[in-house]
Amino acid sequence: MLPMTATRDPLAAGAGSERDQLELERHRSELTGYCYRMLGSASEAEDAVQDTFLRAWRGRGGFQGRSSLRSWLYKIATNVCLDMLQGAKRRARPMDMGPASNVESILDGGIAQELWILPVPDARVMSPSGDPAELAARRETIRLAFVAALQHLPPRQRAVLILREVLHWQASEVAELLGSSTASVNSALQRARATLDAVQPEPGDPTPQDERDRELVARYMDAFQRYDIASLVTLLHEDATFSMPPHRLWLRGPSEVHRWMLGPGIGCRGSRLLATAANGCAAFGSYKLSAAGGREPFSVQVLELSGGRIAAIHNFLYPELFPVFGLPTRLDG
Questions:
Q1: How far, in Å, CA of 126 to CA of 221, rounded?
Q2: Which residues contact 12 (CB under 8 A, 6 or more apart)?
Q3: Residue 32 belongs to a domain with what CATH number?
Q4: Euclidean distance between the first and final Cα of the chain, in Å?
């Protein structure tokens, strides 16, 4: 945490204090969520927030309380994200890159991590308390499909849409943040909505997770750990998708998933799962048997549910994500 001051203005010059550190830290979660929607990567979002706090500390002399600290931090965070997005390629999911594959398809060597939408832990971007319906609506705005759709927008349009539609800022507030006019903000929002309508799949129903969902996830976990693939695929929606970044390959339907898990994916037999939460969804850290004994990190699985079935299984084959989710880097025994 950065050093802050003990005066009424949390960014005034002077000696730092724990109170002023907390003044910044209480904005970390929402700023991380904002930056994640802008950037599509949890690690880049956290870097952006750290840079935001650093710029705030260095520029504290220019902050004179003309706006709220929260608004000022959002302005800095927006500029940080716009800087990071200069020249960056659009992040995506495997299903955004081409048609579904089949089990006979050959895995490529994978493509660069910065081209993928990567998962974010719920704990980093979501408050655990609040109205269940409101929390459900917020979860929809960090779903992988929504974040992928946002990547189709130019960066400033992306910021406008997130601030207006997700965070519910007034057009005049967004105009002030961007140094623009209200008319320009409204025009950018209209164009952003049109683009999302063209690229975004039908939005999900933002309902709170219920006991049926929790039971479905528990049944998946049990079937996977027993490697009972016949039972596992009965939990899938008829057009469920199965993807494995960094590979482009993705599958559609229970039959293809069944063939993969008992074919090229058979190395997952004997794996163990540890539960977590990512992108508003149930998620797991998956640990494969290791030749050296015990089990080692293999993938972060994110499950999307719809209509009492599993609609998507996203397997992120990045062991380096495990510490981000607070998951152990090895399971013994």
A1: 24
A2: 5, 60
A3: 1.10.1740.10
A4: 37
